[in-house]
Amino acid sequence: MSDKMETIAVLTSGGDAPGMNAAIRAVVRTGIARGLKVKGIKKGYAGLLAEEIFDMKPRDVSDTIQRGGTILGTARCLEFKQPEIQAHAADICRKHGIDGIVVIGGDGSYRGAQALSRNGINTIGLPGTIDLDISCTDYTIGFDTAVNTAMEAIDKVKDTSSSHERCSIIEVMGRNAGYIALWCGIANGAEDILLPEKYDFNEQNIINNIIENRKKGKTHHIIINAEGVGHSQSMARRIEAATGIETRATILGYMQRGGSPTAMDRYYASIMGAKAVDILLEGKTNRVVAHQHGEFVDFDIEDALAMKKEIDPYEFEVAKIL
Ligand code: ADP
Ligand code: F6P
């Protein structure tokens, strides 16, 4: 572990998320305000290995806080799982005078951060994912924007669905996590919510529910389906055949991952970015910044990765009642 911090770097890794630019901006400006040199690394760990490393000044992050995506770019870099590649990456950091790195990404990116830390580069992770599926934190950068984007889109689909008295299956992102689906389920007043964590494969229940609701005079039936459950098109065909009610599938897709971040994502990401720099300056490494019980905190990455997070059964029950 290096004890004097002169130069830090920042990278984004894994899926991009609205608010990542606010975090990058906070790292750059806080770092420079604290007397550090700050470097940007393009395209995650792939860019680190390719030495796509450049100096960043406060003006380089002007006019970025409102932009979606990540100005640094992001990438998946499978070879970073290899110990000799990780050691080589740490050598590259030393070659460029980098004493500490802030990694903005999800659980996979934290494992890369752990590896850099093991190899002597002080590393801090920030939770960047629209999926909200990082166990140690109740907030992840990008979720708020993504869930609001999905909610607005679902409202629109619901309008036309009601006019045509159709059933709509709307698929939202979340390959392994149903948080966007759960939140939209409540926020959009959906009739059914399918989450990868809770899916019981009993389509007949949904079909019965649709028939019952139609008998009661409901003109629409909105099913929010998480990507992790998937198969929205074929499900729509089966539901239409079983109910006789026109059924359409809409897959919202990547529109949920783009767009200008909400105030919450700009604010939280900014505080987290600043905190990451201050933690590095305290000489800490192998930590992840989180938000828990109303406070910004940090955890050892090993402990953070060992934590478990589940869909709250009470919230899921409320979603079903409402
Ligand atoms: P996320 O960070 O959003 O969870 P990924 O799981 O795709 O996204 O991980 C992002 C990147 O982190 C990977 O492309 C790889 O470069 C790095 N990574 C993932 N798992 C590991 C690991 N076990 N060891 C080292 N690096 C990893
Ligand atoms: O960023 C999170 C996420 O959007 C997941 O919901 C989804 O499963 C995954 O990324 C898909 O990302 P990509 O298509 O870029 O691999």
Structure description:
This protein is α/β, with parallel strands linked by helices and 322 residues long. The chain folds into two domains: 7-142 and 261-306, Rossmann fold (3-Layer(aba) Sandwich), CATH 3.40.50; 144-257, 3-Layer(aba) Sandwich (Rossmann fold), CATH 3.40.50.460. The chain is 42% helix and 18% strand. It contains eleven helices and eleven strands. It has helices at 20-33, 44-49, 83-95, 107-118, 143-163, 179-187, 203-215, 232-243, 263-281, 301-306, 313-321; strands spanning 7-12, 37-41, 53-56, 100-105, 122-127, 167-172, 192-194, 221-226, 247-251, 287-292, 295-300. Strands 3-2-1-4-5-10-11 form a seven-stranded mixed sheet, sandwiched between helices. Helix 1 (20-33) links the parallel strand 1 and strand 2 (37-41). The protein is elongated, with a radius of gyration of 22 Å. The chain starts with 6 loop residues before the first strand and ends with a helix. The structure holds adenosine-5'-diphosphate (ADP) and 6-O-phosphono-beta-D-fructofuranose (F6P). 6-O-phosphono-beta-D-fructofuranose (F6P) binds next to loops.
